Amino acid sequence: MICYPNAKINIGLNVVEKRPDGYHNLETIFFPIPLTDALETVHNPESKEPYLFSSSGIDIDAKPEENICIKAFELLKANYELPPVNIHLHKMIPFGAGLGGGSADGAFMLNLLKKEFELDVTEEELQELAAQLGADCAFFIKNKPSYATGIGNILQDVELDLSDYYIALIKPPIHVSTPDAYRGITPTPSSHSLTELIQLPVEQWKHHIKNDFEQSVFAKYPEIGKIKMELYEAGASYACMSGSGSSVFGLFKTEPSLNMPPSCFTWIKKL
Ligand SMILES: C[C@@](CO)(OP(=O)(O)O)[C@H](O)COP(=O)(O)OP(=O)(O)OC[C@H]1O[C@@H](n2ccc(N)nc2=O)[C@H](O)[C@@H]1O
Ligand SMILES: Nc1ncnc2c1ncn2[C@@H]1O[C@H](COP(=O)(O)OP(=O)(O)O)[C@@H](O)[C@H]1O
């Protein structure tokens, strides 16, 4: 069986407070976008190993057991009977990008194994397992525009139709570490909920909707802030860094013509 784990963008992100466990409570809108990896499982009854893992595409430079697909496999196997399986990941979503590509692979792996082996596991149970893999993993089980609170794992559906817009996604050759990005922030409660702010016309979002990571990440890597400025100069209705960076997205009414350096990953698509 094959599936296509997709990336997400964060439309606004407020880091609200630091928790005693070291994590942070936040407020964000997760929005799925059609930039995908491909993930395949093949039942291999002859194999003596519980899994055989192979990968292609972007090299994430991690041992198989460090790959979140395998962490998801092991987590499910600790709770359910799983026969031997061959797993192949074709990696296309840039990582260290704030696009949640690793989290998507983990969540989709759980769902794929459930389908392949017809496991009796509910969506709520899958969400709980996914949350053990990463704070924003549970979102990818639902994979619908969501308002997220808590550490990113408390989810509420939101109506958000961006199908009139093109998205341009730019990822410079910079890897931002998520824990470092959280360390760079002074948490502050927000005065208006993002569920209210996304009701405003997209053209007004730039005055109201921000990503709290931008200030410290742009100070350390001015190139990322410059990309956001260039997206506005190219006519974006709204532009924002996604998650803890380093990718930046712009929403455009018409297909943009961009002149980004070849070292940047550039992806443009009608939503
Ligand atoms: C910043 C966000 C915004 O959507 O996304 P990315 O930029 O990674 O895509 C997420 O909060 C990232 O979630 P995720 O990448 O799943 O985080 P995890 O693997 O669970 O945690 C990595 C580290 O980030 C910090 N962390 C993460 C989530 C959170 N709410 N508070 C935190 O302080 C902790 O230091 C933790 O050890
Ligand atoms: N399947 C995977 N895809 C991407 N990164 C993975 C995967 N498995 C493990 N990782 C590790 O997770 C980190 C990036 O996770 P990811 O969620 O893609 O990042 P971000 O959301 O910050 O862009 C990297 O350190 C990478 O080595």
From TrEMBL:
A Pfam short name: GHMP_kinases_C
Top-rank EC class of the record's enzyme: transferase
Chain positions recorded as ATP binding sites: 94-104
GO molecular function, one term: 4-(cytidine 5'-diphospho)-2-C-methyl-D-erythritol kinase activity
Domain GHMP kinase C-terminal positions: 211-256
InterPro entries: GHMP_kinase_C_dom, GHMP_kinase_C_sf, GHMP_kinase_N_dom, IspE, Ribosomal_Su5_D2-typ_SF, Ribsml_uS5_D2-typ_fold_subgr
GO biological process: isopentenyl diphosphate biosynthetic process, methylerythritol 4-phosphate pathway; terpenoid biosynthetic process
EC number: 2.7.1.148
Reaction it catalyzes: 4-CDP-2-C-methyl-D-erythritol + ATP = 4-CDP-2-C-methyl-D-erythritol 2-phosphate + ADP + H(+)
Record carries keyword Membrane: no
Organism (species): Carboxylicivirga sediminis
Pathway stated in the Swiss-Prot or TrEMBL entry: Isoprenoid biosynthesis; isopentenyl diphosphate biosynthesis via DXP pathway; isopentenyl diphosphate from 1-deoxy-D-xylulose 5-phosphate: step 3/6
Its job: Catalyzes the phosphorylation of the position 2 hydroxy group of 4-diphosphocytidyl-2C-methyl-D-erythritol.
Similarity field: Belongs to the GHMP kinase family. IspE subfamily.
Positions of the GHMP kinase N-terminal domain: 67-141
Catalytic-site annotation from UniProt: 8, 136
Protein's name according to its UniProt entry: 4-diphosphocytidyl-2-C-methyl-D-erythritol kinase
Keywords in alphabetical order: ATP-binding, Isoprene biosynthesis, Kinase, Nucleotide-binding, Transferase
